Amino acid sequence: MASKKILVTGGAGYIGSHTAVELVRAGYEPVILDNFSNSERFIVGRVRKITGRNVPLCTGDCSVPADVAKVFKKEGRFHGIIHFAALKAVGESVAQPLRYYRNNVGGMLTMLEAADRYKVPHFVFSSSCTVYGEPDKLPVREDAPVKNAASPYGETKKIAERMLETFLQSGVPVKAVSLRYFNPIGAHPSALIGELPLGTPKNLVPFVTQTAAGIRKVLQVYGDDYKTPDGTCIRDYIHVIDLAAAHVRALGYLEKKRGPFYDIFNVGTGRGQSVLGIVKTFEKVTGVKVPYKIALRRSGDIAEIYAAAGKAKKVLGWSAKLSLEEALRSSWAWQKTLRSGKR
Ligand code: WQD
Q: 20 to 30 A Cα–Cα from 124, which one of 80, 140, 179, 226?
């Protein structure tokens, strides 16, 4: 049977681990490559427990050619690569731009060289809505102008997308998509895997769940003077399970194409929710109060962005199915297992 092996870089991470689970469910054989710089080893064991499969793990850095060569030497041919591995803290990237270029752009270059050298036919890239900057029109469509990113992190995603597109324009027999994520939240229903922020969470929902759990004293709401209905920023929060499923759909779509082929998809719900709306919905579904205070705006934040989700629905036959309530409920269930310290 043709290999259905998929190399999942950053596969021990938040979205990578959930996608590894969905890949097994769809009959693929994920192989995880991770250097654990921003993830924890026990998550690989949890992926194996959820799937009942001994999902192979290669420890290494996808921006180091020797590490990647070792994976191909050990695992042989791959049907596809899903490239998640990247640093993604917007604020940190402003303070450490070169580290972000080395890791995110260097990682993409190494993975494209591998796809070329080892003739991997399918490539799915984990991109981000940050490439849109502050969109002129909402909901934001894939053909919206890609603007100056508000951070080096966003720049690395724009550069990586162009590298992928121009790599394909060189005529290589590879088929690829860039998936532009909006705001992933939630956790697997088993509560065995979920978002694992190392240190103080930078993203909203893990900070909400840690505040609800009493780990953080108070949630700071970064600004309530934006031109939005309740003054707080609006984002498109998508359940990580829906997001993971979009990767499987993207692979199926590419399998039907002849290379070279490239396309771009927004992966969001198409609905916006404000910061205070997230807090109120969390309190409603969990019955747990989240103390918050209004703080100064966070630099780099845009007021509002949410996806035009029609292209993925029409072309991939994919749309987000799970509700915001379910995402927040699953985030809280995951937080509670973490609090219990069970590893
Ligand atoms: C959401 C809103 C904050 C924390 C993230 C990632 C980025 C990309 C998209 C992958 C903003 C507010 C937050 C807090 C708050 N993901 N907030 N208090 O900035 O939209 O981008 O998702 O590519 O990598 O950074 O998400 O969760 O940080 O912020 O008020 O303690 O919540 O100001 O309005 P963001 P976020």
A: 140
